[in-house]
Amino acid sequence: MCELYVRADPILYESRTRSLRIHGVVTTIRLENLFWDVLSQIAAEDGMTTNQLITKLWDEILEWRGEVPNMASFLRVSCLRYLDSKRAGELPRPVALRSV
Asked: Per residue of the chain (100 residues), what is the pLDDT tens digit?
């Protein structure tokens, strides 16, 4: 079983920092490449850019929780929940409105 993990292409777990604007404020988010790929896939399925998806998620978590203490962790968990839902065939629409 460990081979499944240790044989992963190192580029997948290499971190990449991206700058983006959320309501005019420039911020940076650092995630592993695999998470950026999943966010891109979610965004494409919803007809958005990755930055638009992240802004939408920011707005929704802020509205839901009143704060965003760790956006990078929130995005990672969102990606995993998306993949889990996809595997189970339970993709709700729109993806960004899923409960946390």
From this structure: 678 778 888 888 899 999 999 999 999 999 999 999 999 999 999 999 999 999 999 999 999 999 988 999 999 999 999 999 998 887 655 544 444 4
Q: Which positions ≥6 away from 82 have C-beta within 8 Å?
A: 38, 42, 91, 95, 98
Residue found by looking up tokens 């968990």 in the block: 77
